[in-house]
Write a structure and sequence with these properties.
Shape: flat
Mean pLDDT: 80
Helix content: 55-70%
Number of strands: 0
Structural class: mainly alpha
Order of helices and strands: HHHHHH
Largest sheet: none
Distance between the termini: 65 Å
Number of helices: 6
Strand content: under 5%
Low-confidence stretches: 1-11
Length: 124
Amino acid sequence: MDVKENPETTSGSPPPRLDCIKCFDALWFCYTPFHQMQNYYRYGEFDNCFGKWGDLVDCLTLKTKRAAEVEEILIAREKAKPHIWTFRTVDEASEHWWRMYKHAALMSTPLPRTAQPPPKSAES
């Protein structure tokens, strides 16, 4: 075992760590001509980078707090983030699939009886 490896630190997940360099790099990139032209092409307006400034100021503000307090704040923020996937019941998933891909399904070959769209509900 290497001297630098400590079984206590390698067994669990690492504590959240503040890294303001990432915020600064994101802000720096935001002002590059590449990003500004890309944003103009996609959305029709230049990016004012307001969100990046806010992230950097927030990071620097957290650097002034105690480590235990910062850890609590970061863990609370992580828990508050919405999950990347949307969970649906079978009926919700089926209905969503038909809304998204109805055009492709109806233009293809006739569907077997088991793959017919769900019946229209009285609410629709």
